[in-house]
Amino acid sequence: MACKGELLSRIAAGDGHGENSSYFDGWKAYDMDPFDLHTNPGGVIQMGLAENQLSLDLIEEWSMNHPEASICTAQGASQFKRIANFQDYHGLPEFRQAMARFMGQVRGGKVTFDPDRVVMSGGATGAQDTLAFCLADPGDAYLVPTPYYPAFDRDCCWRSGVQLLPIACHSSNDFTLTKEALEAAYDGARSKGIRVKGILITNPSNPLGTIMDRGTLAMLAKFATDHRVHLICDEIYAGSVFAKPEFVSIAEVIESDVPAGSGGRDLFHIVYSLSKDFGLPGFRVGVIYSYNDAVVACARKMSSFGLVSSQTQHFLAAMLGDEAFMARFLAESARRLAARHERFTSGLREVGIGCLRGNAGLFSWMDLRGMLRESTPEAELELWRVIIHKVKLNVSPGTSFHCGEPGWFRVCHANMDDDTMEVALDRIRRFVRQHQHEKAKAKRWAARGQLRLSMPRRGGAAASHLALSSPMALLSPQSPMVHAS
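Request: output the structure for the sequence above.
Response:
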């Protein structure tokens, strides 16, 4: 009898999905014990999921005021037959036109987008998978600045066989991508015989919550054209910039720096989605916008595997086409995101915890390096397990984002109401204060020469240090533990 592995393909039986990660382990911990302010106030608060729930009321209000946008209402039923029978993988013309106009609007009207280059996909996940299919062969590589979104390991690699190679970025310059780091990653891959087919960036950054300046984007564009490699720009948070400096899209750099007809523009591709800026991940609306005609043609054929329902397209064509509403939505969403970001980061500052200075996204990049037992990935995961199972917060450790510096954590704070966020802040502050108290007490004992611990010989000094300085010391013996990969 064939074993399970022989019944499935190598891809299906393997672990290339990337979910054997602490990033997804945190979600599982939340699913097992989800927080609810009234029915489970001691549960795990989900701070590992980047969702914008702060402005959904605006979309709900628009929907109620425009029943004609839905074919399932009396006001919109006249379009039922046309929409229900539409299955062209090009997508509804009115949807592509509205999406192209909105993509220009969200970028401040500085660039225009051609509706004929808008290709639909099942969310940004489907868009990245499709682009990897179009651009690279198994074993080829993308270069990706660190830290980066953990699910790229699944989205870009699982079915395509593409490998992601890190471009090392560091906290000393706020994780800014440099030309030297890019060249080092490229040369390192070439020296190993790996063909580099593209550079993958997120702008605004997930998990940093920062944006790339025009100079960095121009450097990337020149590098791509000089070396004839693709530049894939995930701009899924383009509409979630809430403070200066203003967002600069790669589309602006292309229009100003890459001459039309030169052959250079066919290396550039933008991924977008409505999942983050609008908080509509369930709609599964992703977009590939490519400047390469062959990629557009192939991706459009591939979209048959992940089409957006015609009913969803119809609704969104009406909403995105309402430019006055879109302007109000973007402005109010930015105001609410800014207020939430300030409340959360200021609450952390009360106990001396800092975050990378950010101006975009639905999260903060929290610095807990000072709470590590030692500066190692193992110590970071040790701290993370305490936060998950003792503090009851699902935050995401930097190692899951391929960050080379242990102690950074991504914390999502736009996916909850005000009351839940205050509970989360209170939990973090109490945990930090307890850690600070224990650390100060240990120092006082050591300074007074009163530290007399009887340790088993096999424990030695290392066990003593763990008992005094590690967050693990705050766990009760009964605290549940999980072991992340």
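Residues 453-469, 472-485 have pLDDT under 50 and may be disordered.
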